[in-house]
Structure formats: structure tokens, C-alpha cells
Design brief:
Layout lengths: L2 H18 L2 E5 L7 H4 E3 L9 E4 L12 E4 L4 E12 L6 E9 L5 E3 L2 E5 L15 E8 L3 E10 L2 E4 L12 E8 L4 E6 L2 E7 H4 L7 E3 L14 E3 L14 E3 L11 H4 L6 E3 L11 E3 L11 E3 L15 E10 L4 E9 L2 H42 L6 H22 L3 H14 L1
Helix pairs in contact: 5-6
Bound molecules: 2-acetamido-2-deoxy-beta-D-glucopyranose.
Length: about 425
């Protein structure tokens, strides 16, 4: 092939590729208050928390990083956006968004729900049936995981694997890929953190094999590896009393038999006592090994190659509870193209994550300096505040460690270690 022909083929491939990529939903909140016309708040409860459009306390780009933030503590939040319904039959579907827990979240959801198109958006609530729930969920030290829940035949099924979520204050990109070959992949920050098959990692279907209910261990099945040696007999001098009168005990001089009764020496353990006699153990010549219950195909099981399939995907919703508010959701994408999602992730989260991290670092450094100065002033004050100062110095040390962690390349690993340490305490 000549050079021009090669270029031609590449050009055709690019056209085919871009024609095939379909973005069903994309929301980056780039047009001011207009998002209010696209998102519908649920009216199911009267006291849902308010969503605020903001880039937060620190960001990579003051405009592009604007997203929906939970703004009131200890509230339920419920809002959703509709798009043209589609089926993922025979195609991958990718669900992706960013979450920023800039408030140092203690307990609260950071996940999305994907609904069938017939969802009543103003009535949306925790019981509204959804197709997919995906994203981070944090509560205390014990719950820090990524949910991947699929609805199958009317029932919600949770993933059996534990996927750890990020628990720092920066923006993170969460991606779920669901493939028509019934495999899936979860990515955080465009790195794969979990993958596998629907059938293995969820309990959608009954077990393929079950123990044969007809099979029973034969009565004469001998599964004793060792038996008593029949030739072994108890030695004649084996039986000795467990306790004997203390031979060294003496009747006290002042013992008065009329008053105290007949004197008896105290009992002590008999050094010659050998305990209960047991015959020697020998290999059982009739040993057949442990009996294994034979398995048969489960008559209840039937394969289903459509577990992954959802007929009319049409709404993306945020339906969650937060104790400490401040989480910002942004950069929602639903597409049938894995590479397109990665591209969009790179263009959005990928482009602003570094300046965001820097801005946070500067704020942290500044706060640390202010705290240090405050402490210095306090040090010159009266001695009776000694105890308090010690507390504050300890806090300061912790802050220093935190910011050190933030500077390191692998915040995930550091976080994991921290969590583990705390769990162990
Ligand atoms: C996204 O960014 C990463 C890291 O820079 C890069 O390795 C990857 O190829 C990018 N993906 C796409 C689809 O451009």
C-alpha cells in the first residue's frame, strides 16, 4: 500500500469510529443556571437537601469544574435528568462521572442510579426501581466501597467483590463498563480496579451444580483414618487414685479430737495418677477416605446471556443521603464507547486534576502556616495553657503527615494503609 492509501484507510477508520461512538448523555454544567431545566428534583419528600452549582473550595478550572454540590448536612438528596431512551443490547455501555468529597466526608453516598425511561422523576425515591447503581459509598471506617448493583428480573443484586473507593478530598473519576459478552470493568481515575464476569461476581442465577439429593453416604462407608488398637490392653497397675492424703501432713499439736473431730490429712494430687487409659491409635485398614457428596446439574439453573441487557435506559439520578454535605458531582457521561468515555474523562477530570491538587496543596500549606503562627503566639502565653498546647502540637503533626501523603504519587496506597491501620485499632 502506498502512503496515501494508508492515510486513506486510517481516515476511513476514524470516520467509522466516530460514527459508531454514541454518547447518550453528557452533563458538565457549563451553562450557568440552565441545568435546572434539565434536572428534575424529586418532590417525594418535602425536606430534600438543596443542590448548589459550584466548583467548590479548590478546583482546576473555576468554570469547567462547576458541578452539583450537596449543600445541607444530614439530608436526603434526589434529582434526575432524562435523555433519549436506548437499549444496550449487543453493545457496551459506559457510565462515568466525577465525585469530589471536598468536605472530608464522614458518611454519605457518592453514587448514581440509572433508571428505565418510565421513572416518575418528581416521585423518585429510595424505592424507585432502577437498572444500575454505581459509585462510591462511605460511612465511617468500615464502609468505603464502590457499589455495582444490577437489577435482574426485578431484584437488585450487589457485587460480591469488595471494591475500595477513594476517601480523600480530591475529584475522582468513576467508570463502569458493561459489555454484551457479560463482562464488566470498574475504573477509578481511568485505571482498572476491578473486572470479571457478571455470572461469577454476582448471584444472578442459581448455582450451576448442586449436591445430588439422591446420593447418600453408604452405611458401611468407613471414614475413620485411625482406630483403637484392639491388641493394646490396659496395664494392670494403671488405675491409681487421682488424689491421696498428704503423707507429709501432721496432726497439729493442739488438735482436740473431742472438739475438732477425728483428724484427717488434707488431700493432694497423686503423682502416680495416670488419668484415663486410652488404647493406642493405629491406621484403619478399612479407611476409605472422606465421603464426597456427588454433584449434579442444578435443574433450577438455566444460562442467560441477557443478564447485561437493559431495554429502555432513560434517566440518570442522584438519590442519596449525606451526613456531612459538600460532595460535588460532575462530568456525567453515558456512552456505548469505552474509548470515547476515556477520552472525555481525560479532557475533563484529566485536565483539571493537577491544578486542583495544586490549589488544595497551597490552601493546606497556608492553613498550616497560620496554625503554626497561632501556636507560637500561644506558646508565649501563660503556663497554665500547657496542656492545650500539647494537644495542638499533636494535631499539627497529624496535619503535616496528611499533607505529606497528599504530595505522594500513590494516594490510593497511602489511603489504604491508613484505613487498614485504623481498622486494626
Ligand atoms: C488518557 O490519558 C492517559 C494518561 O495520560 C493516556 O495513557 C490514555 O491513552 C488517554 N486515553 C485516551 C483515550 O486518549
Amino acid at each position: 500500500m502506498g502512503k496515501m492509501q494508508v492515510l486513506g484507510v486510517i481516515a476511513v477508520m476514524l470516520v467509522v469510529y466516530s460514527v459508531h461512538a454514541k454518547v447518550y448523555f453528557r452533563e458538565e454544567f457549563l451553562d450557568g443556571d440552565q441545568w435546572r431545566s434539565r434536572w428534575v428534583d424529586s418532590k417525594h419528600k418535602s425536606d430534600y437537601g438543596e443542590w448548589k452549582l459550584t466548583a467548590g473550595k479548590f478546583y482546576g478550572d473555576a468554570e469547567k469544574d462547576k458541578g452539583l454540590q450537596t449543600s445541607q448536612d444530614a439530608r436526603f438528596y434526589a434529582t434526575s435528568a432524562r435523555f433519549e431512551p436506548f437499549s444496550n443490547e449487543g453493545k457496551p455501555v459506559v457510565i462515568q462521572f466525577t465525585v469530589k468529597h471536598e468536605q472530608k466526608i464522614d458518611c454519605g453516598g457518592g453514587y448514581v442510579k440509572v433508571f428505565p425511561t418510565d421513572l416518575d422523576q418528581t416521585g423518585m425515591n429510595g424505592d424507585s426501581s432502577y437498572y444500575i447503581m454505581f459509585g462510591p459509598d462511605i460511612c465511617g471506617y468500615s464502609t468505603k466501597k464502590v457499589h455495582v448493583i444490577f437489577n435482574y428480573k426485578g431484584k437488585n443484586h450487589l457485587i460480591k467483590k469488595e471494591i475500595k473507593c477513594k476517601d480523600d478530598e480530591l475529584s475522582h473519576l468513576y467508570t463502569l463498563i458493561l459489555n454484551p459478552d457479560q463482562t464488566y470493568e470498574v475504573k477509578i481515575d481511568n485505571n482498572k480496579v476491578e473486572s470479571g464476569s457478571l455470572e461469577e461476581d454476582w448471584d444472578f442465577l442459581p448455582a450451576k451444580k448442586i449436591k445430588d439429593p439422591e446420593a447418600k453416604k453408604p452405611e458401611d462407608w468407613d471414614d475413620r483414618a485411625k482406630i483403637d488398637d484392639a491388641d493394646d490392653t490396659k496395664p494392670e497397675d494403671w488405675d491409681k487414685a487421682e488424689n491421696i492424703p498428704d503423707p507429709d501432713a501432721k496432726k497439729p499439736d493442739d488438735w482436740d479430737e473431742d472438739m475438732d473431730g477425728e483428724w484427717e490429712p488434707p488431700m493432694i494430687p497423686n503423682p502416680e495418677y495416670k488419668g484415663e487409659w486410652k488404647p493406642k491409635q493405629i491406621d484403619n485398614p478399612n479407611y476409605k477416605g472422606a465421603w464426597v457428596h456427588p454433584e449434579i446439574d442444578n435443574p433450577e439453573y438455566s444460562a442467560d446471556s441477557d443478564i447485561y441487557k437493559f431495554e429502555k435506559i432513560g434517566v440518570l439520578g442522584l438519590d442519596l443521603w449525606q451526613v456531612k454535605s459538600g460532595t460535588i458531582f460532575d462530568n456525567f457521561v453515558i456512552t456505548d464507547d469505552v474509548k470515547e468515555a476515556e477520552d472525555i474523562g481525560n479532557e475533563t477530570w484529566g485536565a483539571t486534576k493537577e491544578p486542583e491538587r495544586k490549589m488544595k496543596q497551597e490552601q493546606d500549606d497556608l492553613k498550616q502556616k497560620e496554625d503554626e503562627e497561632k501556636n507560637k503566639e500561644q506558646d508565649t502565653e501563660a503556663d497554665e495553657e500547657e496542656d492545650e498546647d500539647i494537644d495542638e502540637e499533636e494535631e499539627e503533626e497529624e496535619d503535616e503527615e496528611d499533607s505529606k501523603d497528599d504530595m505522594e504519587d500513590g494516594p490510593l496506597e497511602t489511603d489504604d494503609e491508613e484505613v487498614k491501620e485504623k481498622d486494626e485499632l
